[in-house]
Amino acid sequence: MNLEKVIFSFFMILALTLNFGFFYGEIDDAQHHNVYELFAVIVVNLIATVMKFGDKSQMGAMLLATSLVAMVQLIGASIVWVFAVHIHQTGLTPGTVSTIVALSGGAMLANIISVILLMIEASMFRR
Amino acid sequence: MNEVTSLILRRMRMPLILIISVYSISILVLTLIPGVDDNGNVWHMSIFHAFYFVSYTATTIGFGEIPYPLTEAQRLWTVIIIYMTVITWFYALGTVIALMQDKTFIAVSKRSRFRRDVKNMHRPYYVVCGYGETGRAVVDALLEEHFGAVVIEILEDISDRGLNDTLEYVPNLTADASDPAMLEIAGVDQDKCRGVIAVTASDETNLKIAISSKLLHPDVTVVCRSEYKEHENNMLSFGTDHIINPFESFTSIFSMALHSPSMHLIYEWLTGAPDVSLSSPIDIKPGHWILSGYGRLGKQLHHELLKKNIRTVIIDPDEKTRETFIRSDHADDQFIIGTGTDAPTLLQAGIESAAGVIAGTDNDSNNLSIIMTARQLNDNVFVVGRQNLMSNELLYSKINEHYRKSRKNKNEDISALAHLVMQPSEVIARKIRAILIAPLLIDFIQYALNEKQEWANITISRLSAVVGDNPPNIWTVNIGKDKTPAIAQALGYGRRIELRHLIKDPVNHDKNLRCIALLLKRGDELILLPEDNLELKAFDQLLFCGLRKVKHTMSPTLRDLSILNYVMTSKNEPQAYIWKKLTRLLSTQDRRSSRR
Predict the structure, then answer these.
(1) Chain A contacts of B1, Cβ < 8 Å?
(2) Partner-chain contact A43 B13, CB within 8 Å
(3) Residue A46 forms contact with B (CB below 8 Å)
(4) What is the distance in angstroms between the Cα of A62 and the nearest Cα belonging to chain B?
(5) What is the mean pLDDT of chain B?
(6) Is B143 exposed, middle or buried (CB count within 10 Å of its CB: 0-12, 13-18, 19+)?
(7) What pLDDT, on a 0 to 100 scale, did the predictor assign at position B166?
(8) Could you give the CA distance from residue B24 to residue B497 in angstroms, rounded to a whole number?
(9) Facing residue for B10 by CB, picked from A35, A54, A81
(10) pTM over 0.90
């Protein structure tokens, strides 16, 4: 067992599960989408991205790309949140909530691809 | 991904993850600790505010307690945040700085810069492997002829030191050139790469370079330095184009000097040997020769002397060498055991009546000592010296001065201490220069060797009439569409162009350019010193010798049809459409006014 692989996969799968947790629920209901969950998704995704740095293989490049896509989506979602709550101070209307959740949904898709790639890579290493 | 960025990212993984973790914990806890707003209500920092707060605290900017004064509990956590985050930042910065000074990192970034420079090379270039004395001379010659050069040298201090004194930037890599991957990085497989010059100190490395270069890029010209026969054969079998053995090269120069001093002078002068003046041919008197040092060079030189039926006395300290010498066929010559550095040995060898002395050991101090002693005993003797290291050149010139001083009162014209100096790296560099820059020069020399001494003397007087005391410049003109479009066009019209037209000054028809055509190559036919009225044909190759600037002065004649017309007819013809109309108009007006 390779500890590095364990930690690596742990963060990638955690990113996906947390992302799913945030995404799940009525799309425009602020009650179903916790801000701390979004925070956790962003942090775990950031860590997962940094862990993929510097891998020169084709698979490494693909994994990094999916993570970067997820980051763009999630940071977009958080910016929307900041705009709604702090800058315009309109609060979380159903419209903003659905925008935020939709963006996190896109990030989730990227995270799913990332986990699929991880599984493909794992299945290639059959000893 | 770039090697350098990938290396930075990989090293930065840990510090970045640490920063992210510390930030997220700080932010999370900040949002959970209850605060008090200005009305005394319970207030929780939002994630956005917490992120803002941690960002300016972690980077030690410290805007203060925004938006409301913190409670004691929040302050306690802030203290923890400060120490945690600031230390983490220092750790991250430290990692970056350590990386910048890392040997591997520096090597990798140098290599990637080298790779980029080679890729951006916009002119044809040569890859020079080994930046020793020879390599340096070759690079200088290449730059002078406006070729690009790329250097691979295994010793770091050499490539750093040497390349700083060339004015032009030369991409250089500290690496083992026998590694094919390094040759690939140096761009051997690129289209713009014209050739590979392997002049490292080791024959084996040169051989490996030759093999890998030919495999990487079969069209590339490969020039190799080699000191041993067995390596040469191996190199040949891999299609190496030119193999240069310093001993053989010098032997052929020596043989040329024995055969025809004037021819030798022409060769030295044309190949750009330093301090050669056309006015001072060497003078070899009849008599026997003394050869000190019977190694690789000594044996070959002895062979040349035998061919000319010149009696030789050999001096060598090695008893075994003597035994093998006696067993060989040409044992008629005398063999003396000794170093030749002392007067008794030289006297025994008959220095007083000798025509020449060769100091050919592989030790520079011994050679100098032999030369000094020999010249003290017999001042008229012809001296051939072998200089093994270029760094000893200073010694050679110093001893020259010393010798001159001690003889000053006699008021004699003392020529250089050694008349002929064999300097391996210089001999090789000159030959490579000729091969790369003027391949026809080799043909010229080989062909000219069949000529008599008188021919060489006439050539010398013609050359010195044109060039005078200036250093010569050699260049090749290939008649064809690419290099000489004007001539190709005129030939296409069926006009007769003679050699004398090219030599005319394109500015002043009455003057000739200060250059001389040494050789014309037409197919397999070679014409030495072609006549002025020789008709030129397409695909002729001409070798010119003249002043440096003449090469450029001649170029308009070759490229511009109107200038070619001018040198052929001495008339200026209008070129542009409007100017043609105008001249016609003016000439008709002239006629009208003259009629009135």
Answers:
(1) 56, 61
(2) no
(3) yes
(4) 12
(5) 82
(6) middle
(7) 58
(8) 85
(9) A54
(10) no
